[in-house]
Amino acid sequence: MSPEEMSNMKSLISTIASVTATAMLVRSIASDFIPKEYRSYVFDSFHSLFHRFSSQFTILIHEFQGPSPNLVFEAVEVYLGSIVNSSTKSIRLGKTENDKGLVITMDKDEEIIDVFEDVKVTWRMECRRIESGSQNDEIKDMIAALCSELRCYELKFHKKHKEKVMKSYLPYIMERSKNAKEESRVIKLYSNFRNWGSDGMNLKHPMTFDTLAMDEEVKNALIDDLESFVKGKEYYSRIGKAWKRGYLLYGPPGTGKSSLIAAMANHLNYDIYDLDLTEVRSNSNLRSLLLGMSGRSILVIEDIDCSINLENREQKEEKENKHNRVTLSGILNFLDGIWSCCGEERVIVVTTNHIDKLDAALLRPGRMDMHINMSYCKSSAFKQLVFNYLNIHDHELFDQIGELLQVVEVTPADVAGELLKSKNPTISLRGLVEFLKIKLQKEETLKSQNGGPEAEEAFKDETKHESIHDSSEDLSNIVDL
Ligand SMILES: Nc1ncnc2c1ncn2[C@@H]1O[C@H](COP(=O)(O)OP(=O)(O)OP(=O)(O)O)[C@@H](O)[C@H]1O
Ligand SMILES: [Mg+2]
């Protein structure tokens, strides 16, 4: 360095030092001597002068972008809440109806240091009270009506990392907070009874794939299918198909079809849109309902064979059209139609007790991608139920019950009903053995009295009704009101 450069450097350093000292001095005395209305002007001027000589770069993220909430602010708030650490002295804590757990946010004037790919950054939260009426500013007044203070996150780091922070760190925060928000979100259940309504009901159904009793292989195949669907955005666009997947659940009442839908919603964290076709006035009403659904959701049409007559399709549709009713082709148009691509990541679940009654057009491959048979309770489903209800993995009565389940057709709902009767495993399982024996005896007596498959069917019908009244539930019963 030449003597001249050395002297320039010295003078620069002394200028920075004096600006810094002056800035600090001004800050400390400004509150007493500078009139309120000029304070922010004076502070800002010194602030910008100071920054001209600083190696630090600062990004300010205000809570509002004009009159609208700033999405970056919201993302930063969620992100910082997830990284508060032991060095944080004070936090803000809250929970709304739409949050699963407690929500942590950074408190005023708190600082958090974060390290991203070896870049050290400092976050600080500033609050300024909104003095409404001080300026004739409409936006300010609007915001003042919503909150009493304006919040702003200040992000500081070395100038040389500007590009990394802008191009990698901030997008990383946006992505991470999106995922965190998804995870903490409460699943909603919408019903077409009131055209979905503005805000659905909170669905807090405890059923998960861990607690659902069904054939292990089918369950795993379904989970895999859901996983690849969720990750399939690029795949679906590459093959030119709408990003949707259809599941048909069929089986007798009480075998867990509604429970499986709840488990799917919990697994995917998707909202449920429960479509009662008997409430749909026309195909155009159906179309507007389907267009009103958000993405990442499950459209459920339960008991499709009961809500729409699927037999003699053409003849029926003629009649139904006269009454301006929803038709099967209206539904099928949605499943296949061009506007089914509006909104992404949609799962459609159709349930029925009578797969044999369904129109072949609905069963065609590509419409319902997976057909899942929810069948009577067999040994593996029984063991899952016993673990759920009694918290045991084994018992001396298991073999006997397993053998009875080979010959008696009972639903998981029937078994669950018996297991609920006592918390004592032996009492509960003995009760179940008795229940199965009585059912078997009834079945055999009926067969020997009347003989033939008709009697068997009559018996099955009788027991189906019992299941419906005893323990089946539909989606309207599984909301947390
Ligand atoms: N596979 C299962 N695993 C765990 N619990 C089950 C299962 N099936 C039924 N149950 C129990 O029985 C109750 C009724 O089951 P669910 O309503 O899911 O049957 P469903 O097949 O939807 O009947 P429906 O055809 O009448 O609508 C559930 O709340 C649950 O407690
Ligand atoms: Mg059901």
TrEMBL record:
Q: What InterPro entries has UniProt attached to this entry?
A: AAA+_ATPase (IPR003593), AAA_N_dom (IPR025753), At3g28540-like_C (IPR058017), ATPase_AAA_core (IPR003959), ATPase_AAA_CS (IPR003960), Mitochondrial_chaperone_BCS1 (IPR050747), P-loop_NTPase (IPR027417)
Q: Which UniProt keywords apply?
A: ATP-binding, Hydrolase, Magnesium, Nucleotide-binding
**Substrates-to-products reaction catalysed:** ATP + H2O = ADP + phosphate + H(+)
The family database entries (Pfam families) matched by this protein are listed as:
AAA (PF00004), AAA_assoc (PF14363), AAA_lid_At3g28540 (PF25568)
Would you say which domain of life the source belongs to? Eukaryota
The cofactor(s) it depends on are: Mg(2+)
GO MF annotation terms: ATP binding; ATP hydrolysis activity
Map out region (Disordered) in residue numbers: 446-481
Q: Which PANTHER family match?
A: BCS1 AAA-TYPE ATPASE
Biased composition regions of type Basic and acidic residues, renumbered to the chain:
457-472
SMART domains for this protein: AAA
Annotated AAA+ ATPase domain ranges read 243-378
- Which protein family is named in the record? Belongs to the AAA ATPase family. BCS1 subfamily.
GO terms classed as biological process: response to stress
Name the chain's protein: AAA+ ATPase domain-containing protein
Organism, by scientific name, is Solanum lycopersicum (Tomato)
Q: Does the keyword Nucleotide-binding apply?
A: yes
